[in-house]
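Encode chain A's predicted structure.
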Amino acid sequence: MIRFDRPAADWNEALPIGNGRLGGMVFSTVGREQIQLNEESLWYGGFRDRNNPDALAHLGEIRGLIREGRIAEAERLSAMALAGTPESQRHYQPLGDLFVTFDAGEKDVSGYRRTLDIATATAAARYGQNGIAYARTYIASAVDQCIVVRLEADGEAALSFRAVLRRGRYLERTEKEGGDSLVLRGSSGGDGGIRFCTRLRAVAEGGAVRTIGETIEVRGARSATLFLSASTSFRTPEYERECADWVERASLRSWPEILHDHVADYGRLYARVGLELSGDGPQDPDDVTTAERLQRLKAGAEDPDLAATYFQFGRYLLISSSRPGCLPATLQGIWNREWVPPWDSKYTININTEMNYWPAEVTNLPELHEPLFEHIERMRPHGRETARVMYGCRGFTAHHNTDLWGDTAPQDVWIPGSFWPMGAAWLCLHLWHRYEMSLDREFLAAKYGTMKEAAEFFLDFLEEDPKGRLVTNPSVSPENTYILPNGERGSMCMGASMDSQIIRELMENCVRASKILDVDAEAREVFRRTAARLPRHEIGKHGQLMEWSEDYEEAEPGHRHVSHLFALYPGREITVRGTPELARAARTSLERRLAHGGGHTGWSRAWIINLWARLEDGRLVGENVNALLASSTLPNLLDNHPPFQIDGNFGGTAGIAEALLQSHGGEIHLLPALPPAWKSGNVTGLRARGAYEVGIGWKDGRLEWATIRSDRGGRPTVRYGEATVSLRLDSGREVRLGGGLRPV
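Encoded structure for chain A:
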């Protein structure tokens, strides 16, 4: 439960609701309600082919300059020859705002309380005014495809208000329809802009409803329900009819039916995982506002229950912004308020979009991963063209951003980030991860071609370095900058460590997939040989894992990206037991980053939580969860980059799961990085590789019980500390283990 004792002072205190497609930020102001609105497919303009036609002609020269160490010249030429034409992809837009002005005004308010119940996906506000109790309830229903606002008063004829839709200067027109509805129509603007329709209807019990100009007025009602939906031409040419149908059907149903079906539909997903954490904290968390709890953390207090709430809030946000059939969650999920938002509120695929989906499989929400898989397919034809036109390569590629249409050309003329052709490869690792977690052979067969095509790009793109290794050229270590021995700074390079780590994992996944499917024996051998020639991990002069192929000094030692630790997390090459020397080097890298101020953005701190979990350091997991909450979390629990980015929420949720359960090392590892402050607790419904579902209970920091259920049958090895046990499970069978890992 997220709780406030006053209305939202600004957007950062508003409460998010969403049904995967429609999003709202609810302010719950007494006199004039505001709900800021989004529809996921409302983006400026249409698709453009932005591949630079001069890229291939200058690629050889750029590569040569990098090989010769003439980095400044290579970067200068790349800014002209590799940059997208035009420079920028398209950006996401808000849908507008719903404003509701109440005749009762702002005076004489008592007992105000507003909440977001993440167990039921229901926002609410309650208060008294002039002796009358008022209640507002807000949902974004996936069943009815509407945002529904229920307004109630316990006094006869006590509810009177006026409702309007606003979109500032970006609105074509609002028209009234009948005596109870408004229809807002418009376009996102730009060449090929998306057309949209927003519809609002009011249904009152008692009193009267009428439309005047651009306003719906309700007078003298006991209660009223507002139904709002929207549709766009991106989805269907019949978008106006679709929007009208959604509102018509929903408004014919009763409020109890609508609420019941919404809670049941949401609960089908949310209730799969439960988490309770106990230790030092408020005696009754519901008696303390969320903002006060965050302030206590800043003062050094512990609050395990707030960490559990944050974990479930991340799951709530994923359910609310990434339903099957929808688009993937953007940099702000589906909650963007700016007409030209930070980083365009699109898909940043050098960490942020991938982080959005880190919790999907482990926290038992696999179908919420599907919008990302569909977007990879949307990118694929554009990525083929980028590979061919810019690099003369087969396969498909993408750089560090993509947009609604799956644009794959470089975004921005920003040397540290733009010219990084690894985006498609990283995204395709999510396809293998889905298979690992589900063992769904049909899914693997459907997606193997996509994985293979992403890997084929590198068969042509890689070149041999002076040591006989196959390396990327050009590339960058995302957004970071190094210092050459002569003092010159550079970002473009050949053979960044992260590149080799991603390519090796992708190619090895293709090898495994081809064996499982019994296809492509010849390609399998090519991938195997290529992966074997990629650079291996190297340890630098500080004892750190090297970020580049040379042991450069960093221009910013506390940089927010920790790209060279990809092989520790989300990759799986570096493990505490399998590669202890590399694990120590990764720890050194992480310690150096933090010592120089790293983790200063929310998503970066979230990644660091996952890295400490993989290093099995529960104390530092706990410290960094607290740091994420205390320093990078807004009063409404949304992540603060700053400004708001949703990836920190999703990464933080994944990190808490990783502290409780890991399965990347060939074992189901229970409580691998339990923070000492989480003294007792239990978690149910987490997923492990091999199609297992796991529950864990502990007391005073020690395992008390665990349950392992198999979807497809298997022989898992289960670890707790230094103890292991091997099990044999039939499909659908569950075994319960005691604290000593003995079946009970």
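The longest strand covers residues 195-205.
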